[in-house]
Write a structure and sequence with these properties.
By secondary structure, the chain is of the alpha+beta class. It has four domains: 129 residues, 2-Layer Sandwich (Beta Polymerase, domain 2); 73 residues, Orthogonal Bundle (Hydrophobic Seed Protein); 155 residues, Orthogonal Bundle (Hypothetical protein af1432); 39 residues. The chain is built from 19 helices and eleven strands. The strands form three sheets. A seven-stranded mixed sheet has the order 3-4-5-2-1-8-9. Strands 6-7 form a two-stranded antiparallel ribbon. The termini are far apart.
Length: 421
């Protein structure tokens, strides 16, 4: 029985990056032997075990053979006779197919790249040096999730290029319909992780290059070739603008809900077969309809879709809020449900600021709308509603009449706050 550290933990230490989660491969063992040693089985589709002390994952070396469509269509073979090289051959990219003998790894999971025994049958170290994302073997084509993984790694290692042969392989997979077999959970998982990487625009770039974006996210793919409105930056199209917006969100370390809102805020500007001419007036409501369909298709979590819908519907009004009077600002806050959910409204403003910065030359420009609306919401929230409601009740008012009294006081407080802002 031999144990090896594999995958991302090896890759990242060779790159000098902080440790990834550690994964281990065990060669020459059976499932029963692992259980006898105190490991806890957790794998449903193949033998994976948790270490009795560290709780890290240890998987038996295995091979995979395509037996049906989609990422689930595999027959897994795990046996003591499966070699480490055979296990590494089933992996996606050469940079993820490097192993280190466990005897060279410290208890903390570290190793010395200069002296450790590295097993690298597919030249992953060469591709790390040359900054190339390259598939390991032709078996790559058997799992369409790997297209999304390549795109995600391109967003993480944004100075890496995708090997020409890997690009061609992914295009062929898309052309043969393999991407159509992906299930929503896996698509969303990879998209979400890609959005949280350093350069999420690279994920879109790679997916678009191989044709997967048009299959998975046609609403977004349609944005390329659509010109920006004259008041924005007409020398780049809406697709290029979207990529700048996403990278602006990454630059300010925005959370996933904000980044997803940035991804989907302009869907209504895209052309479709029934609407060949791009339209910017009224694109917000069209965008909301497209957004809902996208979220249903990929089962996007409710928290994210609710924020994205507000941003899609209201970002134009937020951009123009510097010219709004107190009454219009209050209506905007009410439409965004900001009084009831102020933390979410802060995310709305962050997404809108990223949208404003997603124009050439505007990356570092101030966005006073965020400060003004935040100040406005603070003034509204500072109004104590209970005394107002009690006073209204003492005068015999009920229901909507009490709400109108509260709104009147809020509006007054907002007028005073905006007058000095």
């Amino acid at each position: 029985m031999q144990t090896y550290l594999v995958g991302g933990a090896v890759r990242d230490q060779l790159l000098g990056l902080p440790d990834s989660d550690r994964d281990w491969v065990v060669v020459g063992a059976t499932a029963q032997q692992m259980v006898t040693r105190g490991f806890m089985p957790v794998g449903r589709d193949f033998p994976v075990f948790l270490h009795p002390d560290t709780r890290e994952e240890y998987a038996l070396a295995r091979t995979e053979r395509k037996s049906g469509p989609g990422y689930r269509g595999f027959t897994v073979h795990a046996a003591p006779g499966v070699t480490l090289e055979e296990d590494l051959a089933r992996r996606d990219l050469t940079i993820n197919a490097i192993a280190v003998d466990a005897c060279c790894v410290s208890p903390g999971g570290n190793f010395d790249p200069a002296s450790a025994r590295l097993i690298d049958p597919f030249d992953g170290q060469r591709d790390l040096r040359q900054k190339v994302l390259r598939h390991v073997t032709e078996a790559f084509r058997e799992d369409p999730v790997r297209i999304l993984r390549v795109a995600r790694f391109a967003a993480r290692f944004f100075d890496f290029s995708v090997a020409k042969e890997t690009q061609n392989l992914m295009r062929g997979m898309v052309a043969h319909g393999e991407v159509n077999a992906l299930v929503p959970e896996r698509v969303w998982q990879e998209l979400a992780r890609g959005l949280m990487e350093q350069r999420p625009s690279r994920m879109l770039e790679v997916l678009r290059d191989c044709g997967a974006l048009a299959v998975l996210l046609p609403e977004i793919d349609h944005l390329w070739g659509v010109p920006q409105p004259p008041q924005h930056h007409p020398e780049i199209d809406t697709g290029a603008h979207l990529m700048l917006v996403l990278d602006a969100a990454a630059a300010c370390a925005a959370p996933l809900p904000v980044r997803f809102a940035c991804l989907t805020h302009d869907l209504g500007k895209g052309t479709t077969p029934k609407d060949q001419l791009p339209r910017h007036i009224g694109h917000e409501q069209r965008g909301v309809r497209l957004l809902r369909a996208l979220c249903d298709r990929w089962r996007v979590p409710v928290e994210l879709r609710e924020l994205a819908e507000i941003v899609a519907r209201e970002h134009g009004h937020v951009h123009a809020s510097g010219d709004l009077n107190a009454g219009a600002v209050l209506r905007l806050l009410e439409r965004c449900d900001a009084i009831r959910k102020p933390a979410r409204f802060a995310h709305v403003l962050q997404a809108c600021e990223c949208d404003a910065r997603g124009r050439l030359g505007f990356e570092t420009q101030p966005y006073p709308q965020r400060q003004r609306l935040s100040h406005a919401l603070e003034a509204v929230l500072a109004v104590r509603t209970e005394p107002i409601a009690q006073a209204a009740l003492s005068r015999g008012l009920t229901g909507p009449a009490i709400g109108e009294q509260i709104r009147r006081v809020r509006l007054q407080a907002l007028e005073e706050a905006l007058a000095v802002s």
